[in-house]
Specification:
Elements lengths: L2 H8 L3 H23 L2 H10 L5 H17 L8 H38 L7 H11 L3 H11 L5 H8 L3 H22 L1
Helix pairs in contact: 3-4, 3-5, 4-5, 6-9, 7-8, 7-9, 8-9
Length: 187
Amino acid sequence: MSLGDTAARTVTPVHAVGTRSASTALDAERAFETAIAPLVPVLVRYFRRRVSLADDAADCTSETLLALWRHRSRMPQLEDERRAWAYGIARKVLANHRRGRARRAIADDALRAAAAVPVPPVPDEAFIAAEALKLLPPRDQELLRLIVWEQLSISGAGRVLGIRPGTARARHHRALARLRDLYTELT
């Protein structure tokens, strides 16, 4: 027996390795689906009893199934242990869901409070200035907005717009002059 004969018998062809790993992965996926399928209605009931909206129950069930898939290597073999394992993960998903709902409620309350604050009327001068700004070319509008509203330096605003600091200073000077002229025309 030669070295070549030995190598030929011990080396698996590349196409066979790909086929084996693909079929092994498919078998593992099918085994997971078979093991988890009876738990889906159980998980849906678990969440429907604990969350207010049916859509939230479906979302929580989906998140739980995704977590079960991610941790499938730790899936117990016995059915009772597997169900307890799934409930443990579902409990964590439910806790995350409740924390998210609480955060959204706080954000909603903050938005309602902010919306309830009356907005002071805009002085006529500010309205005229805003109208004059709208009459400038868009690139000049954005330069002035970055400098005045966003409080950037002229060179910083130029960086945002992708222009050199000297160019930004020149454009800013011309834009202010045009804005003054337009403001005067509108008053």
